[in-house]
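Re: [ENG-882] Designed sequences occasionally contain unexpected residues at chain ends

Forwarding the minimal case from QA. Structure tokens:
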């Protein structure tokens, strides 16, 4: 499933062609319903057609893809069924981006929660109670994306009406998004290609261990998602109005808020990583515990990059995003092939860390050329100190209290130190 899911993620990116970002950039300040409807459905139908082309290709080469992913062709039918996730996932992103742009966060949250929780619930029923195996996981994913996609599309049609696509307008969006599409693909290389390399060198069982640990460590990245959901549409509106001072303020405060939550989360996960893996998986997965803090630090740099890179995108200089992603992806691949044979999945995590560090530093240097924004060094130092002190206390007490109380104590201790240091 780890191999299938990263493959779907890759091909969904290809199908989307970064047009959702173009939709945000061009329509955040639009109010005319006909214009919004025309733009939305132009992107929606283009993504649908491209997705179907990709699915057709997968059907033809399913045997070869199965052989590449699993070193056997017996899963070709599973590959064909899973391919429908590509069109659902790509169109689901287009639909949910609409609600992000126009700040209909209740609808957006409802759809995303259904997709996440629905997949979990359907998987339990099909996998555990009915014994469908990996096919049950795939079917669960199909249902959990199809339902919110249909519901979201119905709401959009009710709000702005239905329009036939205008492919002449689409050319403008593609000119903006095409430089971002390779960036998204190279970001996938940084995010997910290590699963392929781990599988190639160490086998698919190790991929499962690494994927479980990676998923837990990458939870830190969740904290940037609510910011980015609102941030880029708002920045686009402010930038179009010429309110550059407000843009700088939004960037600076977004960085402060993200670091306030993400830095202690890294320390907290590092302390309880082994216990958390045992709780969520089995004892066989504990050798992945060292991956968690490394991936968590990577997620912090990824979040910083996600906030800062908004600046060149506002200026429609999307080429910088592309080259940053390419450079980081190349570094990640090279380090993976060098480190994994010697130190296993720890090497994959280290490669990811270096790649995201490079991304965030390069994005900062480039963004400062367009706009001078403030990073509060004193504030950040206080956060790091508070997090380290919190981690030391929990580390000393971890054998005496259970996991739930450790997490609660981490939260309380951290905010006490925040109060003491007047953060």
């Amino acid at each position: 499933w780890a191999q299938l899911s990263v493959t779907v993620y890759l091909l969904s990116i290809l199908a989307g062609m970064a047009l959702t970002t173009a939709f945000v950039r061009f329509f955040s300040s639009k109010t005319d319903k006909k214009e919004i409807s025309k733009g939305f459905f132009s992107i929606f139908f283009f993504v649908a057609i491209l997705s179907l082309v990709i699915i057709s290709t997968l059907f033809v080469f399913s045997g070869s893809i199965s052989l590449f992913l699993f070193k056997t062709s017996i899963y070709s039918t599973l590959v064909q069924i899973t391919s429908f996730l590509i069109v659902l996932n790509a169109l689901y992103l287009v639909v949910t981006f609409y609600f992000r742009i126009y700040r209909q966060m209740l609808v957006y949250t409802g759809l995303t929660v259904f997709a996440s929780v629905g997949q979990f619930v359907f998987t339990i029923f099909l996998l555990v109670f009915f014994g469908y195996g990996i096919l049950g996981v795939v079917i669960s994913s199909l249902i959990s994306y199809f339902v919110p996609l249909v519901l979201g599309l119905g709401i959009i049609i009710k709000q702005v009406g239905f329009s036939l696509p205008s492919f002449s307008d689409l050319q403008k969006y593609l000119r903006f998004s095409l430089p971002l599409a390779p960036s998204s693909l190279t970001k996938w290389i940084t995010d997910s290609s290590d699963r392929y390399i781990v599988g190639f060198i160490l086998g698919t069982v190790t991929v499962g261990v690494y994927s479980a640990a990676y998923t837990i460590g990458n939870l830190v990245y969740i904290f940037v998602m609510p910011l980015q959901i609102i941030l880029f549409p708002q920045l686009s509106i402010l930038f179009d109005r010429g309110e550059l001072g407000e843009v700088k303020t939004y960037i600076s405060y977004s960085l402060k808020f993200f670091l306030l939550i993400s830095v202690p989360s890294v320390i907290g996960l590092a302390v309880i990583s082994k216990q958390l893996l045992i709780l969520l998986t089995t004892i066989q997965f504990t050798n992945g515990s060292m991956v968690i803090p490394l991936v968590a630090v990577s997620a912090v740099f990824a979040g910083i990059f996600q906030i800062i890179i908004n600046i060149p995108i506002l200026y429609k200089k999307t080429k910088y995003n592309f080259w940053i992603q390419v450079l980081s992806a190349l570094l990640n691949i090279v380090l993976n092939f060098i480190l994994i044979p010697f130190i296993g999945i720890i090497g994959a995590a280290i490669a990811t860390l270096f790649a995201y560090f490079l991304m965030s530093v390069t994005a900062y240097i480039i963004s400062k050329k367009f706009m001078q924004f403030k990073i509060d060094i004193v504030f950040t130092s206080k956060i790091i100190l508070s997090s380290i002190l919190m981690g030391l206390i929990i580390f000393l007490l971890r054998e005496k209290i259970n996991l739930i109380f450790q997490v609660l104590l981490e939260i309380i201790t951290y905010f006490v130190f925040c109060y003491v240091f007047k953060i």
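QA comment: On inspection the terminal residues look reasonable. The two ends are 43 Å apart (CA to CA). Proposing we downgrade this to a documentation issue.
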